[in-house]
């Protein structure tokens, strides 16, 4: 049966997890498959990813990087070369043991990330400081054998880009690590309207094999944090393990300094949980596959459909425009496209045509604007810009409201019991305290923000001399 | 050491296979990795694929298709549902048997193609004729466990797009099969300047599980054929195996009619072997990552480099423009960019600047055009168009020269002994003759062309009544 009604979604406050599942399935972003933990990205979900990908790919190219493509498989012996790396990833990789009818002499893992493949290639092509820097990126699928999965947020297979770069000096690698974190932050804030906190991961939470990891952390509607992107300074650990050497300006052999950085389909989950509401999805105009949806009113009346189709053709030069000329009721259509999170609805009926006007309706505020036809393009652009900005502002305010400070562990627990969110608290730098906080509260260290404050001189957990301000939260 | 000289490549006539290997490595399209049979696509190789992908993706979307993304893995039981399909693919799939530390209860194959995954999803989302047609496509990596591999032409993992569609009727599926074959043919001829023969595969050569397979076949410089793209009418075989049913306009349950069609990174191999020469690669302007390369002459003289950089900025609005301002000799640069197949070189030196002119040099003919600066954009565009057209014409003529007719098997063998190429010959339609021709000559049936001729009434092999004209050739 074709759907003749808009299916109801669970309210966010009743059951946030169910709300999320309802939204991703009923807005037709994904479908499940018989492959455990893998999702199908349906046309609407994939179109969102394509728009995010295009926006990020432009930024990656503008900052001087080139796209390449590495193999899907990694021989076990190659993965084992960097000891921290294999320890970090071994528990969660998928192993290919047979090709065709034959058992392989060495098993291959399906890449969980491609540091060692890039490293092996870099060893081949880098010989002199003149070959540096090398600034490569790839768009690929990767696999991590997760026990529990949720669409976009945690799936066995996911899509991402992974940048891998080589540099002459530690400072250059550091600058690159910062540059790409800023690219991710700008994508989140300026394109996805998702505010982020920039900072450094603790030793415990850094990438397996990295010198240090920078991260951007975002906060969802339910007060849980989500890591939106990471950028790692790898130092020369992989270079030493894999033998990536170059003749430096002084004529001496030296190992390269490396970075890697990744951004995944997970961000779609963040976008949903930051902007969505009880009516469904809400997609930021800059990446919405359809920015304006035309809904004809009383479309059986002469001239309405022709007029609406003409409008669609005309607007398609300026914004991504859809039209629903099906014989469903306008009210059904309104609900459907609100659920799909289309930022702007355009209503046009017989009376509007006579008055040379149409009505624009904002997805967020419900505000109705009556607009003269000859001002339409400019008004639509203005309104989309306003929606985009307002989305960011609302998200930033919500995050602010959900960010608290704690001076000791009982305060910390109290806050988490009342209302989930970021907790800013001082930390001594000891892993024991980090572990204890996680054990007692369920919150993990999200990052040591670049913008440090000194809330007190004592660690929130042990009371000893504090070293860092840390953002803590329960997290996806 | 950085390279200070252009490395020599083997001559095509001396050793075509070695010439090919030299070109793909020395023009820096690919590198080998420690993963058997998988290649690394380097920035230049991947940029070519990105341009091909963008051109094809536009055509796929213009013809009403939507992109989706399916899982990488297929459970063994799902792959087995269509019997011909599993028989065709089982010998060449990679099997995942372990996830993390655990052995899987059911092994997963790494997708060699995704008919069954699409089928399973279609079963979920198609219920009524109102849900049809469904026109989906995905860009993905697939794996086929090949014994012998060559970069682009045959690799364990390759990149491709695979379209999968569902229709109400056999005719609609047929029309779609033809439509997408034409899309592929137009991409090959109009964008890649590679002429193709359109036709149908024999029963023996069709896709495992298809009703019939249409193909476009191209001819390489060495006279071997290469299958450039295929489009399959699947009938209702997969629909019956997987239970994809819909309520038709008469209110009865019916299985959908399906198609699938694919186009891969292999086409880059075809482009190389159709257009390349002893100086190296030659890339059609429409997909060349760099269309015009600026080489400053006597660049140490005052003003030359500034002028050249200004030109680059100015031209970058119109064509993909590169500049080599390194301190290598101009002669080195000429050779390097000829090897990389950049269609047009722009030379500019002190005298040119005085005369307000530059020199354009065509990669194919070596022809030099002195062009006034104020006519530059228009002349470059004209010249690129002329190069693109001439590339197609040269390839078409070469194919014509290498296409012969045979009336009996001794003629057939004689032709192949003298000069590789397409052989047009009549066929009775029997698999025995097809097998015998392959055994005795090494040539396989490439296709029964849509444009049939009757060369004789007798099968080239058995002499019985002929049914079809067939193009035969040794093939990649």
UniProtKB/TrEMBL annotation, chains A, B:
One GO cellular component term: cytoplasm
Main subcellular location of this protein, as a coarse class: cytoplasm
Domain named Aminoacyl-transfer RNA synthetases class-II family profile: residues: 41-284
EC number of this enzyme: 6.1.1.15
Gene Ontology BP term (one): prolyl-tRNA aminoacylation
UniProt keywords, alphabetically: Aminoacyl-tRNA synthetase, ATP-binding, Cytoplasm, Ligase, Nucleotide-binding, Protein biosynthesis
Intracellular or extracellular location(s): Cytoplasm
Gene3D superfamilies: Anticodon-binding domain, Bira Bifunctional Protein, Domain 2, C-terminal domain of ProRS
Pfam families noted in UniProt: HGTP_anticodon, ProRS-C_1, tRNA-synt_2b
GO molecular function, one term: catalytic activity, acting on a protein
Class in the EC hierarchy, top level: ligase
Domain of life: Bacteria
Summary of subunit composition and partner proteins: Homodimer.
Protein family membership: Belongs to the class-II aminoacyl-tRNA synthetase family. ProS type 3 subfamily.
Protein task: Catalyzes the attachment of proline to tRNA(Pro) in a two-step reaction: proline is first activated by ATP to form Pro-AMP and then transferred to the acceptor end of tRNA(Pro).
Domain-related comment: Consists of three domains: the N-terminal catalytic domain, the anticodon-binding domain and the C-terminal extension.
NCBIfam families: proS_fam_I (TIGR00408)
UniProt name for this protein: Proline--tRNA ligase
Taxonomic source organism: Scopulibacillus darangshiensis
């Amino acid at each position: 049966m074709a759907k003749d009604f808009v299916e109801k979604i669970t309210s966010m406050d009743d059951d946030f997890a169910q709300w999320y599942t309802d939204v991703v399935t009923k807005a037709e972003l994904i479908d499940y498959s018989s492959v455990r933990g893998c999702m199908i990205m349906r046309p609407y979900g994939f179109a969102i990813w394509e728009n995010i990908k295009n926006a990020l790919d432009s930024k990656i190219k503008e900052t001087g990087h080139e796209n390449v493509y590495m193999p899907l498989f990694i021989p076990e012996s190659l993965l084992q070369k960097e000891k921290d790396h294999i320890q970090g990833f071994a528990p969660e990789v998928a192993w290919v043991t047979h090709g065709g009818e034959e058992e392989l002499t060495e098993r291959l893992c399906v890449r969980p990330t491609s540091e060692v493949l890039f490293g092996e290639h870099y060893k081949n092509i880098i010989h002199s400081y003149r070959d540096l820097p090398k600034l490569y990126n790839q768009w690929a699928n990767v696999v991590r054998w997760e026990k529990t999965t949720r669409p976009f947020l945690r799936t066995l297979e996911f899509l991402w880009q992974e940048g891998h770069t080589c540099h002459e000096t530690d400072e250059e690698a550091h600058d690159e690590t910062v540059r790409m974190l800023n690219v991710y932050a700008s994508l989140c804030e300026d394109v996805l309207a998702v505010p982020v906190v920039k900072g450094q991961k603790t030793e415990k939470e850094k990438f397996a094999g990295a010198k240090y990891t920078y991260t951007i952390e975002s906060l969802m509607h339910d007060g849980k944090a989500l890591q939106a992107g990471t950028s790692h300074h790898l130092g020369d650990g992989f270079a030493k393990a894999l033998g990536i050497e170059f003749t430096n300006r002084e004529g001496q052999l030296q190992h390269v300094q490396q970075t890697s950085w990744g951004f995944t389909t997970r961000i779609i989950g963040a976008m949903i949980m930051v902007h969505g509401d009880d009516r469904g999805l809400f997609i930021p105009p800059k990446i919405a596959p359809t920015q304006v949806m035309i809904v004809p009113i009383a479309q059986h009346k002469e001239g309405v459909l022709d007029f609406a189709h003409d409008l669609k053709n005309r607007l398609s030069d300026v914004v991504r425009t859809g039209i629903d000329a099906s014989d469903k009721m306008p009210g059904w259509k309104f609900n459907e496209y609100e659920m799909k999170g289309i930022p702007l609805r355009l209503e046009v009926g017989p009376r509007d045509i006579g008055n040379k006007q149409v009505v624009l309706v904002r997805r967020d505020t419900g505000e109705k604007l009556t607009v003269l036809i000859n001002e339409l393009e400019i008004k639509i652009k203005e309104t989309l810009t306003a929606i985009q900005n307002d989305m960011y502002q609302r998200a930033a305010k919500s995050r602010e409201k959900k960010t608290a400070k704690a001076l000791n562990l009982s305060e910390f627990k109290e806050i988490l019991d009342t209302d989930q969110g970021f907790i800013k608290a001082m930390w001594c730098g000891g892993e024991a305290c980090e572990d204890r906080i996680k054990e007692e509260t369920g919150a993990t260290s999200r990052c040591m923000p670049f913008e440090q404050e000194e809330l007190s001189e004592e660690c929130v957990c042990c009371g000893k001399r504090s070293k860092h301000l840390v953002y803590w939260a329960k997290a996806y």
